[in-house]
Fold:
Amino acid sequence: MRKKTGPLEAARWKGYFALDLMRGGHVREKYDEDALAFRFGTSVAGTEEKIRALIAHAVSTTEFYKDYAPDAPLTSLPLVNKDTFREHYEAFRSSLYRDAKDNRIMTTSGSTGTPLSMIQDRHKIACNTADSIFLSALAGYRIGEKMAFIRVWVNNVRKSRVQLLMENSIMMDSSSLSDEAIEEMLRAMKEEKVKCLIGYASALSEISRYIAEHHVPMDEFEVHSIIPISESMPDPVRAQMAAQFGCPVQSWYSNEENGVMGVQGKQDSAYYINSESYYYEILKLDSDEPEEDGKLGRVVITDLTNYAFPIIRYDNGDTAVARRTERDGMYQLFLTELYGRRSDLLYDTKGRAVTPYVITNNLWNVEGVKQYRFLQTGEKTYELRLNGDPALMDTEEMLRRIRPAFGDDAEISVTYVDEIPVLASGKRKYIENLYR
Structure:
């Protein structure tokens, strides 16, 4: 049940759009477009026109695309990735926006490589703001409500007191997820009357674990929206946390390069993708050919709103299963399964991709397990690293749960460790393929 929004929080929502109207109403206009697309779909013809305009702009104003024809079809342009951006950074910058004073620089965390700075123009910023507000609203959070952001707050992302006051938010640092740290977080959530939790899925999962293990009474919390980010949250954890707080848990699909692009539904785990701002191609894992609906493929993104640094056919490393619906010239896109980075995909002993949810869904509630990490080390060899109490952990039961997904001839070793290390960004890598 949704907890009551306070009058001052409601006033913040109205006040934000009143201020936007004074500035031209660009955020509200895009917000309304997003809302219509969610109800009725995105225009196929309109998307094609946006793609043509973006390509023509990129060809005429960037060094990287200058040798292509202004009317070149999208599929004739090269696939790019973070390495491409790093190696040809200046060549991607549009000459029209190079000296714009209102550009914004977004920097990736660099958790899986060297950080990357991405330039966004004023129009992109407005669109990204509107998209974030709309997709947050779909997840139950309205700007102006008290929000707690749970992540590792390194200096380049830390917010000032003025920013926190304007956003009506508080920072919660997940550098430590000890019982004492989580207890302090829960105390602050109650005292600050927090309505929304946004944070790393692993941190939110630890909070859920603490609540369950310590039988924390939940009647004094006012949280009515929980949005995991950056990592996959196992479905059982999602269900447990939803039951604990009495509200939906809906993950965002986002990155620093593009922004918030999609959000999970309330009842299922499929991600609705905002096709007003992004055009997605799903390509085969082993070639650049389009993959069929319902089959696992690579996510390739064209950002339709950033002209300062055109992002066209960006292979961001994620893999997903897509479902596209189309009717009367309108379409919607859903990612029914989102597996994460291709480099972290697991494979069975016959070379077939295995969803990481086989691991996350089967190991989240095993007695004695505090943390785990699952590695593929060879064609048929795997390693399960466990941090916890060996006397309580039933390793045979764990192996019985996960072995069928990899094959009877899978060789799975078990190693006990004192800690599963975090990345520099504060995220934990629970699954990794060291073989491919």
